[in-house]
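Researcher: Here's the sequence for the chain we discussed earlier.
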Amino acid sequence: MPLWAVLLTVLLVAVVSAGVGGLAGGFASGDSDAAASENGPELNNDVPSGTPSREPDTIAGVAQRVSPSVVAIHGADGGASGNGSGFVIENNRVVTNAHVVNALEGNHIEVAYSDGHTTAATVAGQADSSDLAVLELDNPNNVQALEFGNSEDVTVGDTVIAIGAPLGLAGTVTTGIISAVDRPVASDEEGETYIEALQTDAAVNPGNSGGPLVDEQGRVIGVNTAIATLGANPGGQSGSIGLGFAIPSDDAETVVNYLIENGEDPQAEIGAELVMQHRQEGALIDDGRGAVESGGPADEAGLEPGDLVVEFDGTAVSDSPELLALISEKRPGDEVSVDYERDGEGDLSTTLTLGSA
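Model: Thanks. This is the structure I predict for it:
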């Protein structure tokens, strides 16, 4: 079978079993002295003792100086599923993926720093639709907080770095480039919500979930969340094939700030079921009974089962996953313009007020 005929599967990249041994994290990196960039963050973490120091604007320099601010997340019993990563944004606050937290439901969460210090943590806020969560630490280390960069400035070909403990291999450093931007990727295992992700060929594996993807100045430009894989044997792990995905920092920072203030981030919705795979260009509303929620946003806007959404708030829509990704960037109550086709006739438009899931 040719490779192009193999169905790719997108997997969230928390370690779902502890069989590989050790903590699994997703150390990512960042740095900057003036030598790296005048606009870069000023990271003052010390180089680990016994390690030859490297210039801060090198990959080695970034890895050395940022890893103290990245943590591994696991169950307090040491044998729980759901190992992942996170990074410090304030002294006692850590960002990670919601699916890492969900995998540890019913277990006490423990956070481990690169120097071996551990502390208990609790969930301060969580948004499953964005696959993001914020943890508060009981006994944090005094490390430098990482800074979010501007993912809008990221372009294809930019160098990025990921540092972590994929499959329990602590301190692993991988590098690559941004392969694509605005790639619609499922942010949950059911494929019901999507994000517009950064795609990278830097190796991302189970255990990297929640760890930052950084640029050459050490700024967090993405939160590692998923990989595409050719599949695995039943019960086995699937690894990187050079298709990793990260939540853009602009989206992540907005959600994280909202979580800190409110504890949750409501998901916007249009109140209609979409056909996820079809041949037409656009997002197709299912033509089944009840596909458009009675009295819901789509219904109130005049949309009907079988309508084809071709533009959402000024952005052309190629398929249903892309529409879901665009919706995920909005908030309940936002008004958006929708262009659609019905029974083969185009040039139809309406205004829709997004609801809350």
